[in-house]
Amino acid sequence: MKEQLLKFENVTYRYEDESEPALQSVSFGVEKGEFVVILGHNGSGKSTVAKLSNSIYLPTEGKVFVNGMDTSDENNEINCRKTVGVVFQNPDNQIVASIVEEDVAFGPENLCVEQKELRKRVDEALQSVGMYDYRMHETHKLSGGQKQRVAIAGILAMRPQCIVLDEPTAMLDPKGRREVMRAVRKLNEEEGITVLFITHFMEEAVFADRVMVMDDGKVILDGTPSKVFAQTQLLKKVGLDVPEVARLAAALRENGTDLGDVLTEDAFVQAFSRKMEG
Amino acid sequence: MAFLEVRNACYSYSKGTPFEIKALDNCSFSVEKGEYIGVIGHTGSGKSTLMQLLNALVTPDSGSVLLDGKDINADKKTARDTRFRVGLVFQYPEYQLFEETVSKDIAFGPTNMGLSAEDVHKQVLWAAQIVGLPDALLDKSPFDLSGGEKRRAAIAGVMAMKPEVLILDEPAAGLDPIGRKVIMEMIDKYRTSTGATVLLVSHSMETVAAAADRILVLNKGAIAMDGDVQSVFSRADELITMGLDVPAVTRIAVKLKNMGYPVDAGVYSVEEAAKMLTAVLRAKEGTR
Asked: Do A120 and A109 have their domain in common?
């Protein structure tokens, strides 16, 4: 078994003044280099997972381990946050400086990274998300997708091993969403960064290694995208859906043509073309 | 005469400064009663400015906006009346809740219209019912509601004025699939019970495809396309160049068409696409 970068062990989390816990005895692990998507309706506990993953919240019961470090041990706090970086939904709440490269430098500066290394990290982080050409631009003039990529670069410059993104595309237009998805997939595939991606958009989950579905503070499904999206009824029951491509394949199956397990557009087109030629 | 018409409207921000930005560039279109129009455009394409133009929150630098043939910016009174007839729901409208109770918050608009207390009460209950807020919530503080309920209360506040034109800017942003569906059903309910015109601004091509009859595409402040759903989505390449998209099934149809298969690239719903692709497969089998 591969090394677990993030591990939740029977984690329960209760917000103050709430009678029902937001998370109920949740256990799961994320392996190094994995791309895991968490789906779930509003209030299912997804964001609570994000905040527990780098000790912004500490579990009410149970334990969260980052690279084997217990997040509830105060001495581990800095190291946990260095290891796992979190990107949130609203890009405007995450930008702190008025110039792009200054914003990206904010995190590593606070980690007392020395000047020469800082320059290198900022440049590399901006290149990774395709925003290097904008390094001297004013942050408030960027589009949503650009701001979100700058926020990701700001996390990258702290050299985390894992990035947790909490609905990073919810406020973006289609182009912004494509840009962010492309940047995140590249970080995972080329730089081996572990990704925990929280979203409401089913189609963003089809590229993941693994999909976890949350409902009522519990993980109710955990498996490959094709395995999870085969559970159409269950997903509907918990307020989710399957991607359009899967719905189209299901409709064709009802009409007597089985294209097999297709979740992405390219897979669909290939399977359809095989039927036509075969 | 069109019900609502925008004629050659231009609008710039920071006029006369080096930072002048042209938000709307010679926009013209007209809208009839009862139409359901989807408005799409990349961030910064001018959508929000255009929506504010339609209820006189923004006055065009040149050109005009006509409601029932009358310039809405002719005088202060007409502009004020227009704001009751053209209801605007901003993005994340729940941030605008401010009253002590949900019912007072919903009552704010109709009260300002000068309706009697009795009529205001009637319209509040009516709007709450359209958005599916149970009576028990009406006496609560809006700040004690859940996120989804807050959003519905805020939308009810606009619906309670019974505007003839309802404009919603990304009403489903940040919601899960069920939440999105509930919002879309609310809009349908409002339409069927009032016959109102609806303009829906959205970044979700699938949502627009499923709801609207007609689509307006904005690009860099200008109306780039205006037509029925099928004709707009059949121009996938142009939309993608503008930073937009087409529904996933349309992208599949375009790819298959480019590979030489006899498919209609303007298809935009899962049901239609399934029907069409099945027919294509059957026809192929028939030739064997």
From this structure: yes
